[in-house]
Amino acid sequence: MTVAGAVLPAVGFAILLRYLPVRKHIAYLIMGFTFTTLFSVLFTSIQTLGTGIQAAN
User: Fold this and answer.
1) DSSP 21
2) How does 15-35 read in b/e, with b if 16+ C-beta sit within 10 Å?
3) Residue 12: enclosing H or E segment and its boundaries?
4) Among positive and negative, which fits the CA dihedral 52, 5, 19, 25?
5) Contact, 56 vs 50, CB < 8 A?
6) Residue 57 pLDDT more than 80?
């Protein structure tokens, strides 16, 4: 279970990259990954921020 829990975020990330138009939204992808990694914030808060930015555009 521990190994499966550690691999699960990578699987989710791979699924997102497979089905989303990454080339169109690469800036958002890099910003979200950077904020999540550097500031150790939850992905849900980055997702909410990204949704707000996308809705404003």
Assistant:
1) -
2) eeeeeeeeeeeeeebeebeeb
3) helix 2-19
4) positive
5) no
6) no
Q: What is the pTM of this model?
A: 0.45
What span, in angstroms and rounded, lies between the C-alpha atoms of 20 and 38?
Answer: 24
Contact partners, residue 35, CB within 8 Å, separation at least 6:
41, 46
pLDDT digits (tens, 9 = 90+) for 17-55: 787 777 787 887 787 778 777 877 777 777 787 788 878
The pLDDT tens digits for 42-52 are 777 777 877 88
CA angle centred on 37, ends 1 and 11, rounded to 5°: 40
CA distances from 6 to 34, 36, 41 (A): 19, 16, 17
Determine contact, residues 40/46, Cβ cutoff 8 Å. Answer: no
